[in-house]
Amino acid sequence: MFKYIVTGLLLVGMLGSAVSARYGQKNTIHKAIQADSGQLVYENYCLACHQEDGSGVPNLNPPLIQNEWVLGDSVRLIKVVLNGLKGVEVAGESYSNEMPSHDFLSDKDIANVLTYIRKSFGNKANAITPAMVKMQRAKK
Amino acid sequence: MKKSIILSALFGLLVNTSLLANTAPKKSPKAQKSIKLKADVDNGGLTLPKGIGALVVADGLGKARHLAVAPNGDVYVRLNKLVNGKGTVVLKDTDGDGKADQNTSFGNFLGTGIVIGNGYLYASSDTSVVRYPMKDGKVDEAAGETIVTGLEHYSEHGSKSIELDDKGHLYVTFGAPSNACQEKNRQKGSKGMDPCPILEWHGGIWQFDANKKNQKQADGVRYATGLRNVVGLDWNKQQGELYAMQHGRDQLNTMFSTLYNAEQNAELPSEEFCLVKKGSDFGWPYCYHDRFQNKKMLAPEYGGDGKIQERCEGKDQPIMAFPAHWAPNALLFYTGNLLPAKYKNGAFICFHGSWNRAPLKQGGYFVAFVPFGKNGKPSGEYEVFAEGFAGGSEIKNPNEAKARPMGLAQGPDGSLYISDSVKGKVWRVIKN
C-alpha cells in the first residue's frame, strides 16, 4: 500500500513538472507564453475558483459565462478584480465564497485577464486596456 | 386572508405533488397492500455493492442539504434555497413502494442542519436552531420553539450542521468564515493572523442544552476547536462519542506558489475524519494535515514550508485522512440490520465532490464506507459504497455534475437515505 503511495507521489511529481509548464507560476514560463498571458493569469489566479471553462462552482463561486458583471460596465468589472467582491447575487444566485482582491496584479495582468474572460467561455465584449485599470487603481 | 393562505397551501400541495408525478405514479388505494419495496432497475443511476439496490424516493426538490427520517418513515429534507417560500420538505410514502407520493413543506427558513431525537425535530438556519415536537412522525409546526438564536450571519462556511447526543446536548458546527485566517481572506501575500481571532467564535463545534430555549452562542460551550469547516458530524451511540469530518483548507499553490505546485495542492491537505472529544484542537488555521507524512504541518501563512511542524506537533490527529478537497458533507454511523452485517456500526461518508484540484480531475462525488472496530477506530481502508452521482466518470468542472451526494440518514427499517444538492434527488438504499 505504502509503496503505491510513494510511486504515486513520484509519478505525480514527475507529471507535475510537465503540467506546471501550463499551470505553474514561474516567471520563466510566463515569458514563454507571453502571447497569451491573459489566459496564463487566469490559470494562475482565477481558475481555481471559477474553473477552466468559467463555469464556476455551484453555490460557492459564480460562473463567468454570459453575465452582466463580465459583459457589462468595464469600470465595475475592473473594480471586482481590484477590490474583490462579497455578498452579492450573480444572476439570481448567491455564492458563499468570497472573491479576494487581486490588486497585487499589474495593470497589464488585470487588463489581460479581463480581456481574456470577456472573449472566452462564449463571451464577446470589448477588451480592457492597462490604462483603464490604471485609472481605476488611482481612484481607489 | 386566512382563506387565501389555505388556498395557496392547497395549491402548493398540488404543485408539489405534480412535481413528483414522474417518479411516483398514482396507485389505487386497493393495490396498496400488495406493493413491495424494490430497487429501481437502474438503482436510480447509482452503482452499489452486489446485493444492494437503490430507488429514487423523490426528485427535483431544490437545493437539498441534510435529511432525517422520522420513526414512521417520513423523510424530512432541508433546503438551501426556499421553494414556494418553504425550507423543509416532507416526503411521505403512503403505499409502501418507497416512492414519495405526498410532498409537503413547511418552515420559512433555509439552511442545512436537521436531526430527529427526543420526540423533536431540530432544524437549523445559518443563524439559529429551531425545534418542533413530533407525534406519529408529524411535526407540530405551530409549537415550534427556538433553541439557539442570534448567531452571526456570514456566508463562507456559514451553514450550521447539528447533532444530538444521548445526554441532552445539541451540537452545532461554526465553520470559519475564512480559508486560512489571513488578514485578508484568500488574498495572495496576506499574512495569517496570530493568534487567529476567528477561533473565539468560529472554527469549532459548540455544545448547547438541547432542551433550553433561546440560547445565544455565548450560552453554549466551545466543545472543540481548530476545525475550519465541519458539515458532516454524527454522535456514535456505541462509543458515546462525537465524530466529525473536517474540510481542509484550499489554495496552497495559488497562495504560496514557490512552496507548492498545483499537483501538490491537488493532494494536500487531507480531509480529516476526527474523533472529537471535549477540548479537542485539530489545529486550524495554524496547521493542516498531510496524509503522506501523516502529520500536522505548519501552514505557510504561519511560516510553514510543507516540512516543519513546530506548534502543530501536539495538535489532535484525525483517525483517518482522505484525499484533499473531496468535501465530506455528511457522516453516519450505521446501526441498522437491513444492509449486510459488515456495515453495522461502520461509517458512511458523503463526499460532495471537489473543485480545487485542477489541473487534476476533480475527486469525491461518491459515498464511502469505513469499517469500524469495537475500539471506535477504523478497522480497515475506506471503500467506495455508492457512486455515479455526477453522471460521467470524470469530472473536470463541478458544474458538470448531475448530482452531488450531500446528506445521509437512516430509516427505521435500516434503509440508508442519500440527498443530492444539485436538483434535490433523494435515494433510498436497500437490500436487493
Number of helices of chain B: 3
* Spatial shape of chain B: globular
Mean pLDDT of chain B: 92
* Number of E-state strands of chain B: 28
Largest interface: A-B, 41 and 36 residues
How far is it from the N-terminal to the C-terminal residue of chain A, by CA? Answer: 55 Å
What topology, given as strand order, has the largest sheet of chain A?
1-2
Helix content of chain A: 55-70%
Total individual domains of chain A: 1
CATH topology of chain B: Neuraminidase
Beta-strand residue percentage of chain A: under 5%
Globally, the shape of chain A reads globular
Give the total of domains of chain B: 1
Structural class of the helices, strands and pairings of chain B? Answer: mainly beta
Biggest sheet architecture of chain A: 2 strands, antiparallel
Topology:
The complex is a heterodimer of chains A (140) and B (432).
Chain A lengths: L1 H22 L3 H6 L4 H14 L17 H4 L2 H10 L5 E2 L2 E2 L12 H12 L11 H10 L1
Antiparallel strand pairs in A: 1-2
Helix pairs in contact in A: 3-6, 5-7, 6-7
Chain B lengths: L1 H18 L32 E7 L5 E6 L5 E9 L2 E7 L9 E5 L7 E4 L2 E5 L4 E7 L2 E2 L5 E4 L13 E3 L4 E6 L29 E6 L11 E5 L4 E7 L4 E6 L5 H4 L6 H6 L3 E6 L3 E2 L5 E4 L4 E4 L21 E3 L5 E6 L13 E5 L14 E5 L12 E4 L18 E6 L5 E5 L5 E6 L1
Parallel strand pairs in B: 14-18
Antiparallel strand pairs in B: 1-28, 2-3, 3-4, 4-5, 6-7, 7-8, 8-9, 8-10, 11-12, 12-13, 13-14, 15-16, 16-17, 17-21, 19-20, 22-23, 23-24, 24-25, 26-27, 27-28
